[in-house]
Amino acid sequence: MIKKTAAVMLAAIMGLSAVSATGVYAAEGNAELPSKIDLRDYNGMNYVTPVKLQSPNGTCWAFGAATAAETSYLYANGLGVPAGTDNNYVNYSEKYIAWYLYHAITEDDVQKGRIRASQVGEGSDMSSLEQEERNVAYQIGGNGASCMNFFASGFGPVDESVTVNGDTPYYYSGKDRIRSEWGAGYSEKDDWTLPLNAEYRNVPVNTALKSCNMLSSPAAYDKDEKYHLDEQALNTMKSELSQGRAIGVGVCFGSNMHPTNWAMYNYGSGQANHEVTIVGYDDNYSKDNFTRSLSSGKPLTRTTPPADGAFIVKNTEGSLTEEDKATAVTDANGITHYQRPDAGKFGVDDSGYFYLSYYDHSISGPVTYTFGDSDSEKYSSHNIDQYDFVFSGLLESGEYETETKMANVFDAEEDEYLYRITYGVNDPNTKVGYEIYKNVGADPTDGVLLEKGETRNAFSGYHTLDLKGEYFLKQGEKYSVVLTMERETDDGRSVYSDALPFAINVAVNGSGTTNTGIVNSGESFFCSDGVWSDMADIKESLVDRVYQKAMEYTGEKASLIAMNPDGRDGFSVDNYPIKAELVPASEHKDEIMIGDVNRDGTVNVLDAAEIQKYTANKAVFDEAQKSAADVNDDGTVDVLDALDIQKFAVEKITGFAKKA
């Protein structure tokens, strides 16, 4: 069970969903859904990893994220196993998530292509708490939203099998695993710390992650705090499950579990205090299975949901196999000890699973992850240019009547190719326009336009977008990613918005975490009414904005003030959640467009000019450029190739003679 520390309370006050998750979803796969789906037996295949045991730490939130990601990855990559057998293809590390998400960037973390020196100190500083307890990061708590930008930033999911210096440091255990003749397990007093340096933090991760999606909860409340079931949100969750995406979700875990049926129904607000993973649903699961009774047999009031229907939920309290039962040892005090660390007596038939009513009032912050097929990924690793390392999971949006833009400006750290972008959005059904520029000057759009386009995201969260081209950038060359976000309000107005990451310091018994967002000049920019502003110059006004909105949202509740006694000074903002993904030129798979000699994504007179420089010995081409320049396919690069490109540019010819 999670320890309800200040960070968990914060998630509750700000809304466990953190980013906005209301509105109409254009969910994929809207075909008629079956009455039951169980990803442990989906068309005869199991896509769910074995149940784990989070003990001895309050890390259910990391388990919820890891488990949801595991199942979604397995399904997307066709890595099911026959139903009834264990699926061990992946085992994502909760330890890695819980430790590094709560530790700020250090000088030793800096690594070309991953973390820039300009961001040292950004993130969560827990040094004051760790003076008292070195493992406190594992007890702070969190929620699924916290992990979205963490994953999107290239930090996980990391498999527990990954080795560093011949060791497997990400295995969920302390450094000295407890073993005895009586059993096995772990102690929270053991040393669970991990090194804060690039070698351990910046390990290779799966590049097939496409999006981290925040869904709307079926537990909806009107302005008078009266509960109602959001049928559309329920169907969206079912749709995600039908596409093999498990759902990390917060629930109130306590006395509302039926003791023998393992069926849970919370009536009333039921503050979420535990993260679990939904792996299926059953429309016909009887509402009577939730009803609890007095010793007299009389049913307890408000323990029966309004109708049938339940989610199938994977918990983090372990499970028992037949081997566990056969090898168990009972000590002199009558306590049973199991040999397997993940063994635990919980759930239906000791399976580690329980049922959660569709009508449970505490369901909060559903999160799913979308993966692609790893085999179809062109690059197994990549560089990431980014500035946002505050992983609070909190985003805030403004609302503007006239067009606004957000942008991040980067300089290439080496010769590399830009091929993908990642960004955060705070509202579902947001239309995102994007522009990519190189040779950027006074503002983010003062440069050579490489590509522009638009897309729409059904869900809020973090999303990747493969660019149409792959654009060469020389070391030191400045380039920008510019976004325009537009959405429709509940009253039908079309407005522009931004996505602003922020964090709140959390105090625990006089000590606490300090969140620092480092925004340097020349990194992030905001455009309103055609005028660009450097985010570093308007940072304080942005802090004022999120502070005022937080106080309006909470009604200045004493609990928020108690958690953050620093008030406005306890709030921080971070750079815009806009990231660029690149591959070093040395690892690039040369597929330069025929005629695109300067690698800017277009074929025009500039390419002809480059050929003329080459023939005059004033430019040097690599082999890929030579191939792209030889448009007439005669084996040489000369003025005839330049002439053909000029003809193509003015539409005198429609293509080139070069063979495919």
Commentary on this structure:
The protein has 660 residues and is of the alpha+beta class. The protein folds into three domains: 6-369, Alpha-Beta Complex (Cathepsin B, Chain A); 389-583; 600-649, Type 1 dockerin domain, CATH 1.10.1330. The chain contains 13 helices and 33 strands. The chain is globular and about 95 Å long. Mean pLDDT is 89; it is low at 1-29.
Can you give the helix content as a percent range?
A: 10-25%
Domain tally: 3
Structural class: alpha+beta
Please state the CA-atom Rg, rounded to the nearest Å.
Answer: 27 Å
Concise synopsis of the structure shown:
With 660 residues, the protein is of the alpha+beta class.
Topology summary:
Elements lengths: L5 H9 L21 E3 L6 E2 L13 H17 L4 E2 L11 H7 L22 E3 L1 H4 L13 H9 L25 E3 L2 E3 L12 H4 L7 E6 L4 E3 L5 E3 L1 H12 L4 E5 L11 E2 L9 E9 L27 E5 L7 H6 L1 E2 L5 E2 L15 E5 L6 E8 L11 E3 L8 E3 L7 E8 L4 E10 L4 E9 L9 E10 L2 E14 L4 E11 L5 E4 L2 E5 L1 E3 L2 E6 L7 E5 L2 E4 H20 L3 H6 L7 E3 L4 E7 L20 H11 L7 H7 L9 H11 L11
Helix pairs in contact: 2-3, 11-13
Features:
660 residues; alpha+beta; Cathepsin B, Chain A; Type 1 dockerin domain; 12-stranded mixed β-sheet; 7-stranded antiparallel β-sheet; 13 helices; 19% helix; globular; disordered N terminus
